[in-house]
Amino acid sequence: MRGYLGVDVGSVSTNIVLIDENENVIETLYIRTQGQPIAAVQRGLEYIRDRIPSGIEIGGIGTTGSGRHLSGIIVGADSVKNEITTHAVAASKLVPGVQTVFEIGGQDSKIIILRNGVVADFAMNTVCAAGTGSFLDQQAARLGIPIEDFGSIALKSKSPVRIAGRCSVFAESDMIHKQQMGHNLADILAGLCEALVRNYLNNVGKGKEILAPVAFQGGVAANVGIKRAFEKALGLEITVPPHFNVMGAVGAAMLARETANKTGRTKFKGFEVAEEKFRAASFECGDCPNLCEVIEISGHGRILARWNDKCGKWSNAEITGVKRNRIENLA
Amino acid sequence: MKVTFPHMGYMYVCLKALLRYLDIDVVVPPMSSKRTMTLGTQHSPEFACLPLKINMGNFIEAYEQGADTILMAGGVGPCRFGYYAQVQREILQDLGYNMNMIILEPPQKHISELIVKIREVTGERSWLDIIRAIRFAWFKARAVDEIERLVHRIRPREIEPGRADEILKKAIGWIDVAEDKKQLDDAVKKARCSLIRIPVDNTRVPVRIGIVGEIYVMLEPFANQEIEKRLGELGVEVERSIYLSEWINDHLFMGLLRMKGSKAARELAPPYINHFVGGHGQETIGSAVMFAREKYDGVIQVQPFTCMPEIVAESILPVVSRDYGLPTFYLILDEHSGDAGVITRLEAFVDLLQRKKEAAADGAGRKGVEQCADI
User: Fold this and answer.
1) Per-residue pLDDT tens over the stretch A216-260
2) A116 in contact with chain B, both atoms CB, cutoff 8 A
3) Third-level CATH fold of B2-125
4) How large is the ipTM?
5) Taking the model in full, what pTM does it have?
6) CATH architecture of the region A2-89+247-274
7) CA–CA separation, B346 vs B226, rounded Å?
8) Domain A97-240, CATH 3.40.30.10 — does that match?
9) CA angle, A115 as apex, A110 and A117 as ends, to 5°?
10) Which are the contacts of A322, defined by CB distance < 8 A and separation ≥ 6?
């Protein structure tokens, strides 16, 4: 039987899942990226390799997340897709009939509107990270509570305090002020949850038509306080699907399956890539005043890919000399 | 006198032709780059919009190359742009750069007002020469537009991505160096031939996106993060709501020539925007309606951060989107250059359109109720 891998390399976490031919999730993994996307992918693959049930052979691999291009090159991905599409694909499979997806991750948050199983609309937070997981992490640390307990403490609140949620800087000073006034921890945490939800619905949701069923996914969906705040604000039941924190990877695996079925083969380089030495380096191209910081990935003593140049001189460098000449002649 | 001007896409090709034709010394500022942006933002008010900042950078870089006179466009509100030339002149003065600024205000009554301004630069040249020069510059604008349009068509269909852009770069160069109408015609012919010889896959049915929004960020690839090229690479056929020659006709010739222009777009804006709101706010909405009627798959609005007319348009766009079932998306541009976020959003938007298109093709005949999207 064939299995398909999905790899989601985000700013905070790297997730890997294995699904089978019927799109059932067999194995999941959630680790911290720690600013080293290549190492995280390699560690993750090693972990998954040891847990693949016997008789399963990898038929395809897909990547997503902000590190999708980089990790796609490392593993030899069949599909490389943005996180909005993968989240939508996974949600429509795991939450039948889903029409709205809230996704709140470490650094970004998005809303996806689906109609008839197709993405009809989406939005992502722009410059402000006020409503995202990192901020919750930071506040939990400041209050000295483990992030895992955040939601359950918030649920105990009888009367949540009002906290300014528009900006994380304002929210923090507002919270400190409320603490000094003597409000209890549960009310403050519940107030923070409501402030974040308000901010999300205003800033990301921006008046979009939110219809049930609503799926809530991404790392922050683990926080029951936020889930309840959403339900209270919308008057709708919110579903937190299984595997909510690795949905991007699940979607990537599903898309990999789709692509591999179309092409009939996979570009997956095998689990050996976990042991390979990859080198990521960057250099500043000084050929024009743009001073592009070109990134270069090499392995096996040869350059696998280059990108991040404006003019395409370096990223296209793989084009062979013959083709180049033909272009010259044309012109 | 060494004359310079700010960059706006390929406008330099026309302005250079105009001035050279009249034997005026021209300093074309170096193409806008990160350095331009750094210089510009360093010496501009923080709250001004992106065009002012990049202009400033252009002027400073032109000064470094010996320019002493600036040709700058003016304007009459409510958009702030009309005030920019004055602000820039003050800043340059404060910096100790001794440059004379000639501001070409859009003619209020008659095109002669513009010609009087041009006289400031041209000195004793005869009227006939000046008109000939303008005509030649005009032909260059038309030539650039024609080539750009062709490239928009080829990009999503080319078999080896990147070739159309290579030739585009060269073609602009050929048009730029042409010294008379004959050479210009040859340059265009050569460019056309090179472009149509690019191997393309004509069986592809690309997603079609119309780009609307503020004129400067629409025409200047450096400011809009090369949105047209990026969309082309994603397999999208792009059409822009306004081209250089149309802008010149609208704003400098007072629409004297009969060609598609912003008037048509403005007429389509009601009932969404019934009157002028400054800048191109009305045209943005009107053009979106035009693209919707021409059955485009989606519309992207580009705007510089804090652009008032475009903010007005942005808030009205969802209504157009709902009425026509046309997905729309907006991109706010400022000095940030990180492109990962832009690429993710563009990719997701194109995915949305592609899947919608596929679903529509599959479901033709089934329940044909199109769902509207308002982004």
Assistant:
1) 999 899 999 999 999 999 999 999 999 999 999 999 999 999 999
2) yes
3) Rossmann fold (3.40.50)
4) 0.72
5) 0.81
6) 2-Layer Sandwich (3.30)
7) 12
8) no
9) 90
10) none
